[in-house]
Amino acid sequence: MQCKKKKWDGGQCGASALTGKKYCALHSEPGRAALLGSKGGRRRTVYSPEALKDFPTPKSAADLRDLLAQSIIEIRAGTLDPKLANSISYLGVGFLRALDVSEVEKRLDALEHEIRNSPANKDGGR
Ligand SMILES: [Zn+2]
How far is the CA of 117 from the centre of ligand 1 (A)? Predict the structure, then answer.
């Protein structure tokens, strides 16, 4: 059975229709959607988190570096949603900032501890 789609010149689509359908793969609606995608003729990619490599919670800049490096690979391979990658990069900036602050905090604590316990402040201090 031939596809029933009329062409712009009044002729008929030469392709054979899908089994039990009036139109060929290109002109039948679900087939057309699968071939061309619903937007602009481009197939919409479906991203699944299962396809991504598992990562432990980052604890250091080095951990984050590994995660970002892997994300670059996954974006290029098309397995990571670019929107998700944007979030990762945004959170990464915040993570590094928090890492910096917590490092300063730790060193300040150590410094204060040192001062409190130094001989000069043993009796007179506070
Ligand atoms: Zn057709």
Answer: 87
Taking the centre of ligand 1 as the mean of its atom positions, its distance from the CA of residue 3, in whole angstroms, is 5
**35 and 70 assigned to the same domain:** no
d(Cα 114, Cα 120) in Å, to the nearest integer? Answer: 11
What is the chain's alpha carbon radius of gyration, rounded to the nearest angstrom? 31
State the pLDDT at residue 46: 78
The tens digit of pLDDT for each residue in 64-79 reads 999 999 999 999 999 9
Cα of 7 vs centre of ligand 1, distance in Å, is 9
Domain region containing 10: 1-44
**Alpha-carbon distance values, 9 to 6, 12, 46 (Å):** 8, 9, 37
